[in-house]
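Fold Annotation — chain and its backbone
Encoding — discrete vocabulary of local shapes
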Amino acid sequence: GAVVNCMGPWFGKLNETVGIKTSTTMLPTRIQVGHINIEAEEHLRLPFTADAHGASGIYFMPRRLRRTNKQLVFGSVDHRFESEIVEDPDKLDTMLDHDVQADYMGCLLHRLPTLPPNGKVIGFSHMYTVNQDDVHPVIGESALKGFFLCNGFSGHGFKLAPAVGSMVTQQIMGITAKPEGKLGQWQTTVPLDFMSTSRAPLSLKVKTHFA
């Protein structure tokens, strides 16, 4: 049998119960997001945009949830907004801090000066599990046979999910899918030890959550 620890922010707690340590440090990190209602078509047509040149790191993207629910979602990838370590994930403050909201809105209006300057801001907080050493995940079997680790995605898990699922499946099953089959077209060819639990931190020119 096999157990896969993919518990996100609770990853470390489960590892502790079986005495597992990793070569890199992954910690729950509080991330704050806001959104406002928008109506102008020029804003609803905007692509996902992130300011990687200025100091704000502000990003924004429109969402049409329903015909009458049109929103602009925004946050920041600047380190100062993505460095608050959460000591206990069970006690996460899920609100958007007032000072962060004010900072976000100042950055947002600087990049989108045609936005209405009034209106209610709604926000929340959630968590990434950030690899403090190289912002990349660990994926693979741990020192405890049959206990696999899959964590430390630093906010990129949703993008990496297909390849990660393939890597974990290949490691647990010990087989690969036939290239011509339906599963084969989704199978990754990344070396299975590339993100191993005992790997050295990757050498990066710049360490950001965009990595």
The CA atoms of residues 102 and 121 lie 10 Å apart. The mean pLDDT is 90. Helices lie at 11-17, 41-44, 98-111, 157-173. The radius of gyration is 20 Å.
